[in-house]
Amino acid sequence: MISLIMAGGSGTRFWPASRRNLPKQFLRISGDKSMIQLTFERLLPLIPPERIYVVTAANQADLVREHLPQMPAENIIIEPFGMNTAPCIALSLAFLSRRHLPTESMIVLPADHVIQDTNAFLGSLVQAEEVARQGFLVTFGIVPEYPATGYGYIEAAEAIGNGVFSVSRFKEKPNLETAAFFLKQGNYFWNSGMFCWTFADITKAFETHLPQALEVARRICAQREEHGGSADVNSIYREMPKTPIDIGIMEPARQRAVIPVNYGWSDVGSWKALADISPRDEQGNHFSAEGFSLAASGNYVHCGKFVALIGVQDLCLVETPDAILVTTKKQSEAVKDVVEHLIQNKLENLL
After folding, report:
1. pTM of the entire structure?
2. Which of 302, 280, 300 is nearest to 289 (CA)?
3. Which end of the chain, N or C, is surrounded by fewer C-beta atoms within 10 Å?
4. Which domains, from first to last, does the chain contain?
5. Are 34 and 54 in contact (CB under 8 A)?
6. Residues 289-316: tens digit of each pLDDT
């Protein structure tokens, strides 16, 4: 088994801590290690460093080397720029197919997820590899804890093994009423964005459902093999269909399986999501440094200074040297609108 870690995202919903030169996956937001370091180390009991690869945008390659010095430098697969998950997986597949046999299996993981039960996680990878060797494209469905509207869902159908089900369909992010229905039905799971397949099966899936992506990826690899680091592949990469892997490959594929898992997973998609998994005091407040609260509850404070909270509830307060964010937890995902404002007003120093 090998693992491919996708680490090219911009993490705009974690502004002002996340910036263009320091995206979310390189932040130390849930401990003293960055998210990509935690993702890498989580794999090591099962997969050695030389069989772990990272695909990332060109402007983040140096950060990957800095955060993962124990991984061979040649295991970094460089996108000219960020596109979407299908292009980055296609590019990785074209690169890795020159190193690995068609019968080998591949685990694909985002770099910026939190998983609390590592043993259960590793066990699910072993199980997924067994299913993938039967010809399935495997995904991991998170057992839902509440009717979330911020995740896509996977509808499971009949059982095809012990704790493994065929996939009926993928569902986009629902409204609250639909999410509550999914929760009640019991066969709907949050889409984790984690996958397992063999090289042969995912190659066949791309050739069938998204051939342009694989053709572009192979051209890029050929150019890089011929010209090395001087190869200019930007114009070629722009020909990629800017499609998520779920829509481009998993939805039209026939042999699909889902493994329901429950190991303390979070995609940490917002400051509220981070607050939900962070330690809190008796009033439900989290302080990253010293703090004081009076008639205040449920607040999240990410700040290096002493902060006093009086009479406020369910706020997120985030400070960096050049910016301060104050939002309610309920509206924390709208931080991406702040980033859009900064872009439109050419406030590049804050991006």
Report:
1. 0.91
2. 302
3. C
4. 2-266 (3.90.550.10), 271-350 (no CATH)
5. no
6. 999 999 999 999 999 899 999 999 999 9
